[in-house]
Amino acid sequence: MKRLLVYLKDYKKESVLAPLFKLLEAFFELMVPLVMANIIDKGILHKDHPYILKMGLCLVALALIGLVAAITAQFFAARAAVGFATKLRTALFGHIQGLNFTNIDKAGSSTMITRMTSDINQVQNGVNMVLRLFLRSPIIVFGAMIMAFTIDVESALVFVIAIPVLAIVVFGIMVWTIPYYKKVQGRLDKVLGITRENLTGVRVIRAFHREAEEQEQFEEENQTLATLQKFVGKISACMNPVTYIIVNGAAMALIYLGAIKVNIGALSQGEVVAILNYMSQILVELVKLASLIITITKALACADRVSAVFEIQNRESASVGTDAQMQVKTSPQSDAEPYLVFDHVSLTYEGASEKTLENIHFTVNKGDTIGIIGGTGSGKSSLVNLLPAFYPVTEGSIRLEGKDLKVYSEEELRNRIGVVPQKAVLFKGTIKSNLLWGKQNATEEEMWQALEIAQAKEIVAGKDGKLEASVSQNGKNLSGGQRQRLTIARALIRKPEILILDDSASALDYATDAKLRKALKTLEESTTTFIVSQRPSSISHADKIIVLDDGEMAGIGTHEELLASCEVYQEIYYSQYDKESAE
């Protein structure tokens, strides 16, 4: 929680004024029993109606002043809490955006969503309640005890016994429930994960008629969450009845002592009523404090979870880059070195027991077209994901223009690379807003040019509004082939030095695929293109084809060379084309 408090620094004034106004309200509230005692002992006892009226007006004034102070405190507390949560959520979102794929995969998107929403909302409520009540309730409790001492020391000793017992109950329950609230939020992650997975894959679930099984799984996780919430709720629910028992027991003791003292003339009736009012104030404040403790307990548990996200850091620290720079300086590259070099590269995903890629070694000249092919799970996408540094190389190195990729900043590297991912992802908005992801200041002429190369010009031209045509979330109002062509156009619009097409034409028919390949040849000679595909026809024109088999290179060469010498390539090719007709 301490780490998160830095986001309150812009609300220092509100964080001070809110408790101060609450203390002002508490001060006036502590005056009420004394005024009541005077009304009873002086006004009612002596039938002094003007005095009763004057003290009655005094009570009204105290109530109005307290109300104004309470509203003002609530305003400042809400402003500080909402502002704090806004800054925290912005910082957390920015931090998540800066995490590499390894850390995002490790944490899980459902967990990130829960911590961005539910957890931060709980922390916001905690900050709001602390600013409003954390000082007010203890001041009322101890203030009431002190005021009771000013009336009668012997009667006030009941407060001395009751308050520590109440403190033990309240804080004991708090310590007991904190771990359980963390578990509740963890279970909430799982429920959100299942919900998100079902919403994303709803078509697959219905296609395989798995609704009943998915509902059963959801109900099981939801029931586990409900059981845990009920358990921790039962523990927290013990707080109110236990505090009521202690406070009412103390009130009985006060009435008994007060009756004896009134009988012997040691106390007046008004003073006994005042002491009982102070005990009632303590009861009310302890009920509020119990609710506050529950809220704080949830907030602290959620704050730990939010802090845990901030503690996730990318391994590619500055020191790694410095080491890479030193390596480049001490081992200068030859001027004749190719544009791009994969130097015995291996990749092991974090938590994996085996290497995904092993000993990948090849060179690429500027402007070349590189085809990558292999069976399912052979590591094709993993290979091209190393170029934009989505995942760090675990062995070997990748050199671009003679420099290790680690030397380049993330911004510089990704500005030079255009990526069309395997899954076509579009964002809610318009076709134009999606294309501008590739280049923010792109002109309409550049957009149409990119659409033409991506074979998407006719699609956009035929829509109402053309570039301003709406795109729903994930492009659900477009077909799979249309989405793929628009994502290709989005990458082309920035005119990247390196273009990566990660199986991005899988939804295209053969004719459109052929037109796309022909159009890609019109790109500037300086553009180096990587094409990942399951179709040999899509990469047969490539200057170099890399064949992967279970994470290792099974062959490298042109289409003709591989067809003559590489068994894996032959198997893929002849599985799609009849051998006799192909020959």
Structural features, described:
The protein has 583 residues and is α/β, with parallel strands linked by helices. Among the domains are: 4-310, ABC transporter type 1, transmembrane domain (ABC transporter transmembrane region fold, Up-down Bundle), CATH 1.20.1560; 422-495, P-loop containing nucleotide triphosphate hydrolases (Rossmann fold, 3-Layer(aba) Sandwich). The chain is 64% helix and 10% strand. The strands form three sheets. Strands 6-9-10-3-11-12 form a six-stranded mixed β-sheet. A four-stranded antiparallel β-sheet has the order 2-1-4-5. A hairpin with a 2-residue loop joins strand 4 and strand 5. Residues 317-334 have low confidence and may be disordered.
Task: Name its key features.
elongated, alpha/beta, single chain, 583 residues, 6-stranded mixed β-sheet, 4-stranded antiparallel β-sheet, Rossmann fold, 12 strands, ABC transporter transmembrane region fold
CATH superfamily of the domain at 4-310: ABC transporter type 1, transmembrane domain
What is the overall number of helices?
22
- Counting DSSP E segments of at least 2 residues, the number of strands comes to 12
- Indicate the CATH class of the domain at 4-310: Mainly Alpha
CATH topology of the domain at 4-310: ABC transporter transmembrane region fold
Question: Judging by the overall fold, what is the CATH architecture of the domain at 4-310?
Answer: Up-down Bundle
Largest sheet: 6 strands, mixed
The structural class is alpha/beta
Taken as a percent bin, the fraction of beta residues is 5-15%
Q: Span between N and C termini? A: 70 Å
Shape annotation = elongated
Mean pLDDT: 83
Q: Cα-atom Rg, whole angstroms?
A: 35 Å
Main sheet: which strands, in order across?
Answer: 6-9-10-3-11-12
Helix content: 55-70%
- Low-pLDDT runs of 5+ residues are 317-334
